[in-house]
Amino acid sequence: MSASDYVLGQSERAGRRLALQDLHFAAASESLLDALALKPGDRVVELGCGAGAFTRRILNRLGPNGVVVGVDSSTSMLEQAKDSLAQHDGQRFKPTLADVSKPAAWLDNADVVTGRAVLHHVPMAEFLLGRLRVTLRPGTRIGFLEPDFRRPLTNLALHEVTRPELAPLLRFARAINDLYSAWRISPAVGASLAPTIEDAGYTNVRHAWHPFVTDESVLENMGLIYDEVRDTYVSLGIITSPEIDEQQKLLRALPVGDLPPVWGLHQVTAIV
Ligand SMILES: C[S@@+](CC[C@H](N)C(=O)[O-])C[C@H]1O[C@@H](n2cnc3c(N)ncnc32)[C@H](O)[C@@H]1O
User: Fold this and answer.
1) How far apart are CA 65 and CA 91, in angstroms?
2) Which of 74, 76, 81, 124 is the most exposed place for a label (fewest CB within 10 A)?
3) Which residues' Cβ are closer than 6 Å to ligand 1?
4) pLDDT one-digit tens code per residue, 114-135
5) The whole model's pTM is what?
């Protein structure tokens, strides 16, 4: 898969979904930025900046001399990021069209390299982490948030018999795992990230797990993901279009308040 074949959408609608996603990523995002201990003048390279929702959070922590180099392989995403950040942060945001799996000059002089929900889109993401280790200056802080749709499955499966209404949560997790496997990207990279980079000689490796409360915004996001990749799901034989309609209906009908997490984010930070 080439970088321009990003598995989820790149449209404005996809940008809006990423903005909604930013809401339930909020606490984990701020926790990552705390752990990265950003300084006002830092040069931050953000891998896979998308429509700029996480970028805005980074910029909020930097002073007038701080810069975010936002790297993405999608021109449409970079345009949306530029538009949304133009008013306040135009000068401090440097949009860069590139494939993050091939480290290049955009990493020069980075104080911090970060990314949210991007490594799992990179095939064999571990190669990238190794390449970063040899490319970045010693002392560079790195930090990532990566989703995991598998860790919560064990707990979800415990409820399978007694709470049959939870079936659409399991169905969603299975479908998205199947999709990522079909695209040969790295859905499990978050879970193995900390030991992987420790083995490669990064220091001060820290890991935290942020499971999401399955609330209205998480359920809505799941419904939107179904729409965004509907054609891909159908063409790969993962789930049919009528079944997607049915699953979306079941998700909308779930009683919010007592639902177990269906996904979460791994937070990993380290120093080169
Ligand atoms: C799930 S989105 C996350 C966007 C943003 N980080 C956020 O949290 O809102 C993943 C982003 O990574 C970008 N991406 C995926 N693979 C890439 C690659 N190999 N090189 C550069 N960008 C990539 C996509 O275009 C997309 O904008």
Assistant:
1) 10
2) 124
3) 3, 6, 18, 22, 48-50, 53-54, 71-74, 77, 99-101, 116-118, 121-122
4) 999 999 999 999 999 999 999 9
5) 0.91
* Domain CATH code at residue 81: 3.40.50.150
Question: Ligand 1: distance of its center to the CA of 245 in Å?
Answer: 27
Q: Which residue has the CA at smallest separation from atom 20 of ligand 1?
A: 99
pLDDT tens-digit profile of 18-72? 778 888 899 999 999 999 999 999 999 999 999 999 999 999 999 999 999 999 9
What range does the domain containing 190 cover? 3-271
CA of 77 to the centre of ligand 1 (A): 8
Q: Which of 5, 6, 149 to mutate to test the pocket of ligand 1 (most atoms within 8 A of CB)?
A: 6
Distances (CA, A) of 245 to 24, 138, 163, 218, 239: 24, 51, 21, 17, 10
Q: Which two tokens stand for residue 123?
A: 């095939």
Number of domains observed in the structure of the chain: 1
